[in-house]
Amino acid sequence: MASLKNLIRYESASSGLLFRQTVYRPNEAARLVADVLGLANADLGDSPRYLFLGVFDAPDGKRRIAGVDKGEMSSFKKR
Question: Which of 47, 50, 52, 57 is the most exposed place for a label (fewest CB within 10 A)?
């Protein structure tokens, strides 16, 4: 299995790998559900799926770890 760091550095977004720059806001519940269902329903057999928050995926394929504000993550956990 690839390390999480290597997944961020070298792999492209796919049906089993998503990058999101920000934490889902309370009004983005439908987007979160769609992303999770998309990962769950991906035709990958028993392969793992990953959803990275705080990672900016630029159009040129380069990624930048933007990070997630501690307060945002705290409010995300409470939902």
Answer: 47
Q: Which residue has the tokens 């630029």?
A: 58
H-state helical runs in the chain: 4-10, 29-41, 70-77
Q: What is the pLDDT of residues 49-65, one digit of tens each?
A: 999 999 998 888 788 88
- Cα–Cα distance between 72 and 79 in angstroms, integer? 11
The pTM assigned to this predicted structure is 0.80
Residue indicated by tokens 């720059």: 21
Let me know: does 2 contact 47? Beta carbons within 8 Å: no
Assess contact for 49 and 16: CB atoms under 8 A. Answer: yes
